[in-house]
Amino acid sequence: MSNKRKILVGIRDSKLSKAQTGIFIDEADKIDEIRTHYNFEIKTIKTTGDIHNTSRLDRMGGKGLFIKEIEKQIIDQKIDIGVHSMKDVPAQEIHKDLQIVCWMQRHFNDDALLSNSGNKFLDLPSGSKIGTSSIRRRAQILRLRKDLSVRLLRGNVDTRINQLRAKKYDAIILSLAGLQKLNLENNVTEVLSQDDFSPAACQGVVGIQAHKENIFANLFKKINDLKTQTECKAERRVLKIINANCNSPISVVSKIINDQIQIKVQLLNHTGETIFFKTYNDSVNKYEHLTDAIGNEIMSEVGEKQIEQLNELEHDFDYTP
After folding, report:
1. Pick from 240, 291, 306, 321: most CB atoms within 10 A?
2. Crossing angle (nearest 10°) for helices 226-242 and 287-301
3. Would you list the DSSP string of 111-151?
4. Domain that holds residue 88
């Protein structure tokens, strides 16, 4: 009989969540202390976002739709840790006694276009139907090409690709990181330029969540990526200051190079017009001061009322030119 302690891991019931969790466990098992004294057991949990997989996310409350049920099970001590895609975790922490105890290294945060024709984004014929569930991507599409049709596309990655291949859409936009983790990168027609499709805050990052009062932050210390952690904390801090919803047409992207941090912020309205765009640079050790200044500048220039209006798309998600 094994004397190893069991670590119960709560995850969404999806191939991507299972793949991300597998990567985390493989990295954790490289640490002698973990491999010797701990076993991981996975528990899949249906979240609100997964159950209501045909509805618009902004009409379902927007915040925490893919994490609420997992967080509750951590609080109720039914699981030890939860694995999240960090772009799904609201910047406004709802449960103060929970924390991200490990940030997995971010490799890519780009968006990717998959098209049936093989045409790249700018070469798609006028009237082509593009599928997405993201209000940010919807606005970015309209900023560049109001001659394209935008259609709501929900479901897991496989479902979305299957709907594309069934010709319900001419093209779809997905996260490159998710496709890579599922070994579906061969479906990509074009990795979209971040000048055109600036990614969501924390896109491509996996975080491990647990109670603050536990051993896990120390246990997973060796696989915690400090660069990713700092970049994501900077991105999330800007969103928190301006009280933005993760479904808003807002992009916050930070990048650390040596001892410097660059933060790029883009806000679009729902018709694709740019209402704020700026790039900032400072020392990494001043990132909190920098993000405070960024947040205050956005609030001053854009205003709280307009930011609140970005949190929900009043009109039909589908757009026809």
Report:
1. 291
2. 30
3. EEEEESS---GGGSPTT-EEEES-HHHHHHHHHH-TTSEEE
4. 5-104+205-224
Please list the active-site residues: 88
How far apart CA 301 and CA 53 sit, in angstroms, is 36
β-sheet bridge partners, residue 263: 254, 280
Residue range 89-145, pLDDT digits in tens: 888 877 889 999 999 999 999 999 999 999 999 999 999 999 999 999 999 999 999
**Phi, psi of 46, deg, nearest 5:** -80, 125
Sheet holding 250-257, edge to edge: 250-257, 260-268, 274-283
User: What is the CB-side half-sphere exposure of residue 233 using CA atoms within 13 A?
Assistant: 20
Give the per-residue pLDDT at 88.
85
Whether residue 177 is contained in a domain is answered as: yes
- Tokens for 251, please give them: 């992009």
Domain count, the chain: 3
Top-confidence residue, 318 or 95: 318
Q: Are residues 71 and 216 in the same domain?
A: yes
User: What's the pTM value of the predicted model, to 2 decimals?
Assistant: 0.92
> For residue 42, what are the β-bridge partners?
9
CA distance linking residue 27 with residue 30, whole number of Å: 5
H or E segment to which residue 275 belongs = strand 274-283
C-alpha of 99 from chain center: 17
Q: How far apart are CA 226 and CA 281, in angstroms?
A: 19
Taking CA atoms, 247 is separated from 139, 261, 313, in Å, by 11, 25, 10
Distances (CA, A) of 47 to 51, 103, 206, 309: 6, 22, 17, 26
The continuous run of DSSP H or E covering 22 comes out as: helix 15-28
What CATH code is carried by the domain that includes residue 182? 3.40.190.10
